[in-house]
Amino acid sequence: MNTTHSAELFRTAQKYIPGGVNSPVRAFGAVGGTPIFFTRGEGAYLFDVDGNRYLDFVASWGPLILGHRHPAVLEAIEKTLRKGTSFGAPTEEEIALAQKVAEMVPSVECVRMVNSGTEATMTAIRLARALTERDKIVKFTGCYHGHADAFLLQAGSGVATLGIPGSPGVPKALAADTFLSPYNDLDALKELFRLRGTEIAAVIVEPIAGNMGTVPPQPGFLDGLRTLTQKSGSLLIFDEVITGFRVSEGGAQKLYGIQPDLTCLGKIIGGGLPVGAVGGSCRLLHALAPAGSVYQAGTLSGNPLAMAAGLATLETLRKEAVIPRLNRTAETFADALQTAIHTKGFPIQLNQVGSMFSLFFCEKPVSDFKTASQTNTALYARFFHKLLERGVYFPPSAFETVFLSAVMTQNDLQIALEAIVGSLEEIFQ
């Protein structure tokens, strides 16, 4: 496979952009080689600057559940674009998308639009601290909630990919306000609450972890979080930036029947454009300025292009009953892949929830960051490049989730299955 032009672009990019990329995992540092520069997407496929085509299992890290250039999303963007790109003032599109989110997500009555998932989690934490008049928060090892200072301790996603415990530049005093607890270990959290519960403003969690690979919650874990936070007067924050509108129309909270106090959204809610949101009851959300005194603002918050793309995406998901159909397709695909793994005796663990899945190159089941970290990243790197050679694009990191999109056909998935199994056979021969 020729990627000469990508290599040339990467050399140029490194002169003007730190590391040659604008988000670290894109640099291929975890898998080696030169990052692929893409020029366009079409349905389930990506095309690079050298003319190669790839079946896309990254989906822009999750937002493109409808695939690339979906007609309804493009039409909504083009129609809005003709009226302007940004006004820095209220628009009808903001109301329409907020209303749609409130209709679909069980715990949400009111919504504050922001520009990214990181902004959403930052806002949720500030709001929780203000409402509870407490400073401490709890996050779980391996869960990633954006790159704000409070969240970078033992985080997943790029932090795990780069093998670093946090980040320089995070003040020690600020880091001291973040308690860490193991994901899926309710007993450890109970002990933390016994000792420090009166200081804890909020517990923030990915209800289905997606940034240490896909790791579902064990039975009783989310219920336990809800009970502990309610008893202590803390708020429960679900980071559904990945899971929102993917595992079900109402996110993981609808799938598992657990209602958090605050919900952070992103990715799918913007239809592929930059967006984030915080949702919850109007009683809580009205603490935000100008209704209340908790300040949060953003020049491009509620940008009409992102609102239009997001609304078109959510309307399509509902109208065409996309998510149940996609989940069934994903389950069938995962079952076929699991059968091949078992039959051929590959030392691999497959975790799957809905249209999210991950392959872990290790012998034992993966249920938390400790077990996820046992995956053989060198083997994953070889696997990644074998897939590239076969025209299948997986995340360039062993700690990211693989996403199916609704436009993938049975033929696409058969091609992917053969490519995955063939790549594994080469690695383990």
Main attributes?
429 residues, alpha/beta, Aspartate Aminotransferase, domain 1, Aspartate Aminotransferase, domain 2, 7-stranded mixed beta sheet, 4-stranded mixed beta sheet, 15 helices, 40% helix, globular
Q: How would you explain this protein's 3D organization?
A:
It is a single chain. The chain has helices at 4-16, 71-81, 92-104, 117-132, 157-161, 172-175, 186-196, 221-232, 251-256, 282-285, 304-319, 322-344, 369-372, 377-389, 410-428; strands at 38-42, 45-48, 53-56, 110-114, 136-141, 178-182, 200-205, 235-239, 262-266, 276-280, 349-353, 356-360, 392-393, 402-403. With 429 residues, it is an alpha/beta fold. It has two domains: 4-69 and 321-428, Alpha-Beta Complex (Aspartate Aminotransferase, domain 1); 71-319, Type I PLP-dependent aspartate aminotransferase-like (Major domain) (Aspartate Aminotransferase, domain 2, 3-Layer(aba) Sandwich), CATH 3.40.640.10. The protein has a seven-stranded mixed sheet with strand order 4-10-9-8-7-5-6, with helices on both faces. The two termini are 23 Å apart. The relative contact order is 0.17.
Q: What's the topology here?
A:
Blueprint: H1 4-16, E1 38-42, E2 45-48, E3 53-56, H2 71-81, H3 92-104, E4 110-114, H4 117-132, E5 136-141, H5 157-161, H6 172-175, E6 178-182, H7 186-196, E7 200-205, H8 221-232, E8 235-239, H9 251-256, E9 262-266, E10 276-280, H10 282-285, H11 304-319, H12 322-344, E11 349-353, E12 356-360, H13 369-372, H14 377-389, E13 392-393, E14 402-403, H15 410-428
Parallel strand pairs: 3-13, 5-6, 5-7, 7-8, 8-9
Antiparallel strand pairs: 1-2, 2-3, 4-10, 9-10, 11-12, 12-14
Helix pairs in contact: 2-11, 3-11, 7-8, 12-15, 14-15
